[in-house]
Automatic annotation (TrEMBL):
Pfam families: HapK. It comes from Streptomyces salinarius. It comes from the Bacteria. This is RedY protein. InterPro entries: HapK.
Length: 106
């Protein structure tokens, strides 16, 4: 499994509440339409205007190649169009997980 991390900075004047509502109502809701996406979450870092970035997102994908194919889909392109009106990715990192990783059992 591959992981992609984006640091995100809101454009000047964009209300964090608006961005977060879009993340919850649109971004998360679109994930099931992207077969390569295994997990996705956005974390708030700061809502201070001058912060170097305001959020980061972690996208776990089956493979980077599969995610590249999903990025060409109409669903993904709709996300990009909306996202670009509110924010920018200021840094991207990706890598392959050293398996198996750890997750606590419920």
């Amino acid at each position: 499994m591959d992981v992609i991390i984006h640091r995100i900075r809101l454009h000047d004047g964009v209300d964090p509440a608006r961005f977060e509502a879009w993340v919850r109502d649109v971004d998360y809701a679109t994930c099931p339409r992207l077969p390569s996406v295994r997990a996705f979450a956005v974390q708030r870092v700061s809502t201070e205007r001058d912060a170097p970035f305001h959020y980061f997102e972690i996208i776990s994908v089956s493979t980077l190649d599969a995610f590249s194919r999903d990025m060409k889909s109409e669903a993904f392109q709709g996300l990009v169009a909306a996202f670009d009106t509110m924010a920018s990715v200021v840094e991207e990192m990706s890598g392959e997980r050293v398996e198996p990783g750890y997750a606590a059992q419920p």
